[in-house]
Amino acid sequence: MSDDSSKEDVSIVICGEAGQGIQTVESILVQAIKMGGYHVFSSKEYMSRVRGGENSTEIRISSQRLNSYVERIDILLALSDGAIDHLNQRITSETLILGDEKNLKSVTEYDTITIPLFKSAEELGGPIFSNVIVAGVISRVLNISSEIFNEIITRMFSRKGEKIVEKDLEAGKKGHEIGEQLVKSGKIKIQLTKDPQIKYELLLSGTEAVGLGCLAGGCNFMSSYPMTPSTPLQMFMAQNGVEFDLIFEQAEDEIAALNMSIGAFYAGARSMIATSGSGFALMEEAVGLSGMIETPVVIYVGQRPGPAVGLPTRTSQEDLNLTLYSGPGEFARIIFAPGNFEDAFKLSQIAFNLADKYQIPVFILSDQYFAECYYNIPSLDLSDLKIENHIVKTDENYKRYQLTPDGVSPRGIPGFGAGVVVVDSDEHDEEGHITEDLDLRAKMVEKRFTKKMEKIREEVIPPELVGNEDYEILVLGWGSTYGTIKEVVNELDSDKIAFLHFKQVYPLSSDTGKYLKKALKTIIFENNINSQFGNLIKLELGFDIDETVLKYDGMPFSVEEVTNNLKKFLEGL
Amino acid sequence: MDPKIFDMENADVAWCPGCGNFSILSTVKKVLAELEINPEDLVLVSGIGQAGKLPHYVKSNVFNGLHGRSLPPATGIKAVNPELTVIDVSGDGCMYGEGGNHFIHTIRRNPNITNIVHNNMVYGLTKGQASPTTRTNFKSNLQVEGVFLEPFNPLSVAIALKASFVARAFSGDMDQTKEILKKAIKHKGYALVDIFQPCVTFNKVNTFEWFRENTYYLEDTHDPSNIGEAFQRAMETDKYPLGIFYVNNDKKTFEENLAVYNKNKSPVYKRKVDLNKLETLINSKRSI
Fold first, then answer.
1. CB contact residues (below 8 A), chain B span 244-273, against chain A
2. Which domain holds residue A487?
3. pTM of the model
4. Interface-testing mutation among B278, B279, B280, B284, with chain A (most A C-beta atoms within 10 A)
5. Over chain A (573 residues), what is each successive 10-residue block's mean pLDDT?
6. Does the distance separating the beta carbons of B62 and A223 come in below 8 Å?
7. Buried b vs exposed e over A235-256: b needs ≥16 C-beta within 10 Å?
8. Which SS3 state, helix, strand or coil, does residue A452 take?
9. Where a domain ends, among A437, A459, A481?
10. How many Cβ atoms are within 10 Å of B236's Cβ, its own excluded?
């Protein structure tokens, strides 16, 4: 690592085997860093196994706000024999490698600094304490006070009992001592400006940002089947269920999950499901049911690489097409793809209002990278939060599918009013009963698709432009690539380049064409092989994007990758 | 209450003349009237098949969903509003074939709903193929050499899962069917009523006559609380017993198990989000 105290951010990577407790180190450190007055961002990559393998977590610390992944490693904590091999492509001569002698003894190609990790842990009672020691080392190196560190340890481990807390505090102290020696030796020198206000900010994961938004949207029913990387959202909702009057049920399969949630919305709840690629594929039939019976539902899809089982713990943006075209037949839908936590909160909240208002399925597309990264944000805005009521009291003449000019029929629910609410997955008449009246059939199709879409298009969330409005080069992205592309475009600091980020990917904002035509050249970044979003733009607007940068190896785009690709593109013009 | 209250004027009934479903339809209406259930407080949930059309011929709230998928929405509806009476009406193909997994797990979940399954041992809507309950050697346009799969025994499966109410009826005996259905709907917990019902068009083997000859009622001495005995009787297939096989009154329902109803009995859908709690939760993310 260069001895450059003006460095704006530091990237620390901790690598070890599954089951070693790297996640514990991450949890302690992201808290400690934020409480210590720095901006923090963390992202993990791991194998689909409970023990063994090589997993790593990247923690970025900065005096500037962060929301992106870098390949660069300034400090590597190697906690297993395979760590160096695993991260070889990211290690440079600038990388400072720390670890126990046991794990580093065979490393010859790099300089390393050995720390007495396992011996110290052994002295405290076993290898389990090495996690807290590691956290203590980093905490000291980052100049985070022992008070803050100890407070975090005490709170995190208090449920394990006083004795464990005491041991962990000792482990932390040991880590601080090792860190102290490293700092004094001059081998590590980090000087970042602290901002004490950061301490009061929120520290969230992408999953929590969505979950809080769902609660804010009035979600009170969720049925789901566990599947990485959507399970954390299921856990968040289940664990907040009692407090927020929310029913969570683990269904026997994905098919049951979505059908159950649709039943719940029909009966008056605001319901949702969370799933991932293959699990969602099982739900497709029920997406059609939601479209046909015009019963709302909110569908969260945490994308991971497919097809089939694919790479369960990795990231992708491969399922835009799957959601966009899911379900037989034709009906209206909305698809959101948040790129930052503020948007994740807000879009998840309004997903419920829009689903309810238009009586359609609304999708929230996330992915492993977004769902599992952490960073701090100042706050979440509750001021314009509104849970709209779209349920009517029925009378004796109530007709569930009454034809109206805007395609939306007032939605009643069973047991509320003197009428009955009849919904049918067959083509149906205004009352909801089976029909084969083909003229009426055509009217119902127009109601479910054309008329609703017309209204939906009037309130599309516009894309966000980052950079100069008089750009010549327009960089495009959607969903989770937001932070990384934004950081690069800001860093390039050129009047000629701007970034257009789509947080609603369907339907497209009517401003889209205007933005595209203004650019001399366009380039899009996507985590899939087909440029699914680029193709959607072509389909909807007839616009050809000049260059596609597509990544589909299961990892998110890094700042370096986006920078290099963008520079290459600019040079080629 | 007059059963006519449940009549649907102008209903275009799509069943074949003589279909066993007609007597089930009129019996269901009588049962609902005798139990004084208002149409607006009743939800009939169904999937696809001839039985799945029944809700369209009853004045009631209706959720006619997907093939095999009636139990999950029925469970969701009841959970959100336990004040509703929820009755799932399906056929043997829909419930035991396409929806087999939901059948198993809904029994385990035990929502307070009634599950009526019209069992005619054949696929009617798709014209004559074998269903999960079709007996061996039955020949059809797809099972050209005859069925060789072991017939699915819904009652023994349900009893093995300790379903809270398990019964079998025969649509040729409306009086007994009515009494069984009344008990099933009044029962607290999941109640399965498998109803033998001849398909006059596609099943020329298991006719009214055949069912009459091959069924008999469980004796008055049968103890429905005895699971071993109930299971044994459910396994009888030379002649099929009819009646209430098994009742388990000790089980808590799905709704009773939901924490949201521990202290507050009002249906979940009537409650509003507590924004103060949300703010507290958000602010808890400011420190560990």
1. 258-260, 264, 267-273
2. 464-571
3. 0.97
4. B278
5. 61 92 93 97 92 93 95 96 95 95 91 93 91 96 96 94 94 96 92 95 98 98 98 98 96 98 98 98 98 98 97 97 98 98 98 98 98 98 92 98 97 98 98 97 98 98 97 98 98 95 98 97 98 98 98 98 97 90
6. no
7. ebbbebbeebbbbbbebbbbbb
8. helix
9. A459
10. 14
